[in-house]
Amino acid sequence: MAKLKYRTISKRTVDALPVEDREAVFWDDKLPGFGVRVYPSGSKVYVVQTRHRSKSRRVTLGRHGVLTADGARREAALAISRIKSGQEPVEKAPGTVTVAELAARYLREHVEVRCKESTQRMYRSVVERFIVPAYGHVAVEEVEQQHIAKLHFELRGIPYQANRALEIGVKLFNLAEEWRLRTGGNPCRFVRKYRETKRERFLTDAEFRRLGEVLEEMEAEGRLPAHPAAAIRLLMLTGCRRNEIVELEWKDVDLGAGELRLRDSKSGARLVPLSPAAARVLAELPRVEGNPWVIPGTKRGRHLADLNHYWERVRERAELEEVRLHDLRHSFASRALALGESLSMIGKLLGHNKIDTTSRYAHLARDSIKASSARVADSIGADILTREARRREQAEEGAAARG
Length: 403
Known about the structure:
Blueprint: E1 4-7, H1 11-15, E2 24-28, E3 34-38, E4 44-52, E5 55-63, H2 69-84, H3 99-114, H4 117-135, H5 145-154, H6 159-178, H7 205-220, H8 226-238, H9 242-246, E6 253-254, E7 259-265, E8 268-273, H10 276-283, H11 307-318, H12 326-338, H13 343-350, H14 355-358, H15 362-384, H16 386-402
Parallel strand pairs: 1-2
Antiparallel strand pairs: 2-3, 3-4, 4-5, 6-7, 7-8
């Protein structure tokens, strides 16, 4: 929930607004309904909120820096006046469609229909936090490359988000042409993505052992409930994604067949084989009456909402700095490669649809191949180099005797 704070909005005060770990709204103390929303990313966006006939309307005016504080105040006053008189907050030419309207249609007719819930949340967040504040007020037909490039440059400090905003922009304007809202090509086509550094962290054998010990210790001490502990163990033992375990229902667990039936994973429906160790974790896990979820939450009938909360406690106790829950999945793949499994088999175990996704582990496969080659060569060397090694030993012994 945003924190509501009041102060006079000016360039100086907006520049000085603090950036916190949660978004906050700062309302102007002179023009009711005029405010600035500050996001954890550092973005500051001017907004208007007022009521008409008991119905609340909130409108984004634009990003601070693109729109001045004085300009935002003038637009806010006009928008509030128009809303209270029952008009649209921003006047536009007849037949004109803005990027904000295009984005709303994109979310409604494309994202909500074709994408999974978690993907929908991500796309909606990027649209509402970055695209609409930056150029949502611009007519679709009038958007130029400079609008896209400017936003992309402003987000250079968060390259992952910058690239997602660019990808969504590409889709937006492709759909705009398909829906005959725009002609003249896609304005995103010559804007290049930033390089993204993939985070990779693999647990060592010793770290796996330490993590197992910490889970047992914290459970015994009553500092870690059984269900979050089981979720973490299952992530280690199956290589599943976090949501695949947290959102797992008992009806999708078949201990007799030794498998999990994931009906709606990121890569579609798939079966996950259960090792004896994973099956034992599930078999020993208490069920909550009336709750269908394997990992129930604190709210009745719901699954656990925040496994990261418990993981941070475990990670700190195990001294595994910067290790994410997702790194347990990477570590599962790393251990499989160390045991000689092929990349194609790893892809099947992790539920990858494309070999390109699994290829990120190729460097680990090379290490595994080198180690295997060394073991084979050492074995052969023990047979073919024995005579030469014996001669060297005899020569060394003779030299020592003469000395």
